Amino acid sequence: MRLLVPLLVAVALVPAAGAGGSLFLTPDELSNHADPSLLRVTGGAFVAYEVESKGSINVVDPSGATHTVVSGWPAVSDPQLLRKSDGTIFLYFGGSTPDLKTQGALRFASIDGGATWSGPLKTNPASTIGDVQAAALRPDGTPLFSQDGTGFVNIYQGDNGSTLHNDFNLCCGYGESLAVDTKGLAQLAFWSNATGKSGYMYEALDATGGATAAPVNLAAGTDAQALPGTNRVPLVADGRGNTFMAWPGTNHVTIAALAAGKVGRKIAIATAGAPNQLALAVEPDGAKLWVVWTQGKYLWATRLRDAAHGAAPIVVKTLLPSGRTPYALEAVGLAGQVQAVVNVSGTPGNTLWRTHLIPGLAAHASLKPKPTVKVRDDTAPVKGATIRGGGKVGHTNAKGLASLKGFKRHALARVTKAGYVATSFRVP
User: Strands 298-304, 216-217: parallel, antiparallel or unpaired by DSSP?
Assistant: First the structure.
């Protein structure tokens, strides 16, 4: 696989984020390693999580109601959610029933939108009670899901994981993600500290879930963190045949854009410091990619309209809950926004905090040949943005341009449009 030098892109920072509907989803009772699973559906997203101290697996539906799937079990671990084409929702997690007779990676199912759950069904006999780290659906509705441990990153295929491949038999692979592109290519990303095979690894998988070749460290030559704090190496597929993998650097988030298992380009987005948690999400139109990360006391995000071919990121941010430390982060793309769920510290335990972010605008004003301002959303011009400053009002045309004729020089002008975080500029 050909490795490319990352393309460093200019970043426009919008100082105030478009956060809305922020709330705590759970009591302060989670462990700091609890990693939620998000599933987009009409009307929002499901959030599944484990409460280690109570031996429970809970699912929050899009309305905000919490459904307890199991409770009082001697062992539970991080879950994963999938939705079949007929609407059935599968819930996978590692655990052990109270009578200890059913253990390993287990499957529950809901046919009524998460209100009730049937199970457990034991999956592959070789499965463990550890976290089900990742899951994805093939185009024909066949599930893939994974577990990792000392000497294995196991990929299971089938409703009950009847087919099993160990796709990394060295010690050790962690924090994996799975994605399937529009042509049906299944792919795996993970972080490895194995001697001679360390880094942020990528593999293409065959029709049964087995690796087609040795894993490749896509982060080679970048400022990748040697010991990442992130709970997983993000990997998502869009609706255009592309797959995106990301990793945290010392001062960047780097994204690799792949098509048919080959890297086309890498984008390095400058960050305010070393990013901690990191997530990727694609909007329902299959075109717009969200990159979300935590760093310092903020949650940061940017939306890329065509990350496979070009990007001019506009970064938005919002404050994390005051006095709380972020741990695991997951995100899901909704229409025109991204929903992020963060495991944050609390007393006596951690909790899940949910927020939404909308994209930002960037404005570039020029004096010649005529005083104008150009407004963009990533690489795209924005039509219909309103410019206000010094008592004057203007609007951008289809090219994202607005005349500044009559605006007082050096006046502060504000740019707004519904669905975007506002920005401002000085009239030249």
Answer: unpaired
